[in-house]
Amino acid sequence: MKLVPLQDRVVVKMIEMEETTKSGIILTGSAKEKPQVAEVLAVGPGGLVDGKEVKMTVKVGDKVITSKYSGTEVKLDNEELIIVRQGDILAIVE
User: Fold this and answer.
1) What is the pTM (predicted TM-score) of this model?
2) I want to staple 54 with a disulfide (CB 3.0 to 4.6 A). Which of 11, 24, 49, 58 is the partner?
């Protein structure tokens, strides 16, 4: 199956971060924060959203930082994905 986002939506997959701190302490599952860095898998066409013209500025393959509690989580082919609005993407990681 394939997800095709509509309007200003973006499909992302969270990237697992390192499980140890800089000082070498290994974090347990409960001590880890939800990752906020994700890879863009699909991008909607943009267009007229809520009466305003939206131009999509992210593209497939970009690494992005998303708002911590944004988006809708979906599971597709045993893969956990998140659908967010472009406005919930805070930055592109270069």
Assistant:
1) 0.80
2) 49
